[in-house]
């Protein structure tokens, strides 16, 4: 691939493709430079270092994930929205394992500030989660607690599935659908924060 026309965006997109192919933790500036047919130094005009490159891939991927989820949940509410959200999350993670792994890294505030135009991708994912959960009549801090539960459940299931961790003959898709049914029931019966505190005070 010719050196001419390289931009930070093209380099980031190529890095995301490389992450899907070899794993996010395995992307390097050298490997990426080889894919463009250039020397490592040519890429440092567009990214500062490997950490900067990985942060850019994380932000790109977070934006893609938010777009995928937003399209899936549009016009839906309640259980339909939660299932659409979960399925979109799983579809993206399984189709783009390297990109998905990138969305799981913790970014420093300075990194988000340096890439302010794209940093809203993380906020959008939180907003989409909270918008979906508000249909269950949840407010803070329950929104955060429920969001963390869903993320943990989705991530755990997807990680085990991707790594071949489900050896039982039970169909994996059927188990996923049953798990979503259970999560919906849990969200409908979510104990409010004041109720929990009251129970603790009463010694229940």
TrEMBL record:
Top-level division of the source organism's lineage: Bacteria
GO terms for MF: DNA binding
Alphabetical list of Pfam families matching this protein: TetR_C_33, TetR_N
UniProt entry keywords in alphabetical sequence: DNA-binding, Transcription, Transcription regulation
Ranges for domain HTH tetR-type: 5-65
Claim: Transcription regulation is one of the keywords in the record: yes
Feature: DNA-binding region: 28-47
UniProt cross-references to InterPro entries, sorted A to Z: Homeodomain-like_sf, HTH_TetR, MT1864/Rv1816-like_C, Tet_transcr_reg_TetR-rel_C_sf
Protein name according to UniProt: Transcriptional regulator, TetR family
Organism (species): Streptosporangium subroseum
């Amino acid at each position: 691939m010719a050196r001419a026309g390289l931009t930070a965006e093209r380099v980031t997109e190529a890095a995301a493709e490389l992450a899907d192919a070899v794993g996010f933790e395995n992307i390097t500036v050298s490997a990426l430079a080889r894919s463009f047919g250039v020397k490592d130094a040519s890429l440092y005009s567009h990214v500062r270092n490997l950490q900067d490159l990985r942060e850019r891939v994380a932000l790109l991927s977070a934006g893609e994930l938010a777009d995928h989820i937003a399209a899936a949940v549009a016009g839906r509410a309640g259980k339909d929205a939660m299932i659409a959200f979960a399925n979109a999350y799983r579809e993206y993670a399984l189709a783009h394992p390297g990109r998905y792994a990138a969305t799981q890294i913790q970014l420093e505030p300075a990194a988000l500030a340096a890439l302010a135009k794209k940093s809203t991708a993380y906020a959008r994912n939180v907003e989409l989660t909270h918008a979906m959960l508000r249909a269950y009549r949840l407010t803070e801090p329950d929104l955060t607690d429920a969001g963390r539960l869903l993320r943990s459940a989705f991530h755990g299931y997807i990680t085990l599935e991707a790594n071949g961790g489900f050896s039982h003959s039970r169909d994996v898709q059927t188990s996923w659908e049953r798990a979503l049914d259970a999560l919906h029931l849990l969200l409908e019966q979510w104990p409010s924060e004041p109720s929990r505190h009251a129970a603790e005070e009463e010694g229940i």
